[in-house]
Design goal:
There is one protein chain. This protein is an all-alpha fold. 50% of the residues lie in helices and 0% in strands. It has one domain. It contains 2 helices and no strands. Helix 1 runs parallel beside helix 2. It is globular. Keywords: Membrane, Transmembrane, Transmembrane helix.
C-alpha cells in the first residue's frame, strides 16, 4: 500500500480514478449505502477483469 489519503471533495472521481489505475484495491469507509456501492460496482468489476485484487 503506497499511500492513504482522506478525500472529502469529488469523492466519486477520486475513487474511480484510483480503481482504474490500481492492481490491488482496499476501500476503508465508515458506512456504505446501496447507492454508493452501485456507483463503484462497474469499476470494481472492471478491475477484477484486469486481474486486480480487491
Amino acid at each position: 500500500m503506497s499511500s492513504i489519503k482522506l478525500i472529502t471533495q469529488q469523492v466519486k472521481e477520486e475513487v474511480i480514478a484510483g480503481i482504474s489505475n490500481s492492481s490491488t484495491i482496499y476501500i476503508l469507509i465508515s458506512f456504505a449505502i446501496k447507492v454508493g456501492a452501485s456507483l463503484i460496482n462497474p469499476y470494481l468489476l472492471g478491475a477484477v477483469k484486469r486481474g486486480a485484487g480487491i
